[in-house]
Amino acid sequence: MFLAASDSKYKSNSRLHAVDICRGLALLFMIEAHISQSMGWISNWALTMAGPFFLIISGFSYDLFLSSRMKNSPKKYIFLESFFRGFLIYIIPLIPYIIVGLFFSSLFSSVTGHTYKIDIFHWGIFQIIGVGYSLGLLVPNNFKSKIILGLLVPNNFKSKIIYTIAAFIITYIISNYFHEPLGFLISGIFPLFPWIGYFLYGRVAYELYQSKQLKDDKTLMIFSAIFLIISLLIDEIFKANLSVLTRDQFPMFLLLCSLHYFIFSLLVIYIDHKHFYFSFTDKLEKIGKICFTAYYIHFFSLLLIQKSFSMFFSNLPPAISNLIILSIIIIILIQIEKIWKNYNYKFGFEWLLRKGTEGLLLLSKGVFIKHIDWITGGEDH
């Protein structure tokens, strides 16, 4: 339920709990959005917020990763680790997609006459995060960096804002002038452009979090509220249609970013600063710690529950069936996390990502260092 600050387990913990809670919240929206029994505007808004929130907090987490590495690691190794992480985040989710595609292609193509095409540029949430990790690298302040400036996002506040806005400008340019050769970059449910903008905004949000001017709780609350109000006014001025179909339009993008920042600010103030403990946010934090793995577990659990008890749920009001299904999946994820952490989350997505990155770094040791030295200008810090 609720405990005062003096009783909170968060009081002596240096971890930024708001990040894991936001991950868990994004996953909660995804679960609700994927439940077949719709609850009208609640399900629609869950679907609208799920993907953007997931990308925003991933961008924020990426800068947390960079800041932790910059304290102890040379830039050349941060460059490689960031690239390898991005590569694996991109590739690992493609494996089940390719396997399923090959299965359908070999089994049903001859019967249906329909050819199943497997796209390497199969854009989804994880692929966008992978690109964000791979291209969001550190750019040193030397001449050589100017050559690759178009590909990499400099690690400073102003550049992150410019690149975030540029994601929407690039979308417009491709759709109107280069759709034939570059259309694959703006195609699909979650096209790379402009959806990479949500990831980049997450990096902007990290800079705001680090800002000395926003360290005071009152100032942070006022700033986040003003940000939300301004975005609502912009939506009103442009008569924006607030729906899942407009998430790739800038007014809706701005609203979702400001809404996420407002929620994140509340969590930072009351959980990380004031150390209040809420049972519900604690549960969200638990599943947020394994959010990549939980993303797939929730699909399997949801399919199994809805297929096995379809007749039962069809006779219930959508609100009741949603609440039951949501509660069951959350309990499943919490119990899995509780048991799995004793085994260091072995064979989960996060574990594969960590071990895979370590393995690639070992394999590349001494092979790419000279090339990385050219890119980073030989800078170690």
What features would you describe in this structure?
The chain is mainly α. It has one domain (2-376). It contains 17 helices and two strands. The protein has a two-stranded antiparallel ribbon. The protein is globular. The relative contact order is 0.15. This is Acyltransferase 3 domain-containing protein. Keywords: Membrane, Transmembrane, Transmembrane helix. The chain crosses the membrane at residues 45-66, 87-108, 120-140, 161-178, 184-206, 218-238, 250-271, 292-313, 319-336.
Number of strands: 2
One letter per element, helices H and strands E, the order comes to EHHHHHHHHHHHEHHHHHH
Enumerate the spans where pLDDT stays under 50 for 5 or more consecutive residues. Answer: 138-151
Span between N and C termini?
46 Å
General shape: globular
User: Given the helix and strand composition, which structural class is it?
Assistant: mainly alpha
- In helices, the fraction of residues equals over 70%
Whole-angstrom Rg? 22 Å
Total count of domains: 1
Strand content: under 5%
Oligomeric state of the chains in view: single chain
Largest sheet: 2 strands, antiparallel
Strand order of the largest sheet: 1-2
What is the mean predicted local confidence, pLDDT? 85
How many helical elements?
17
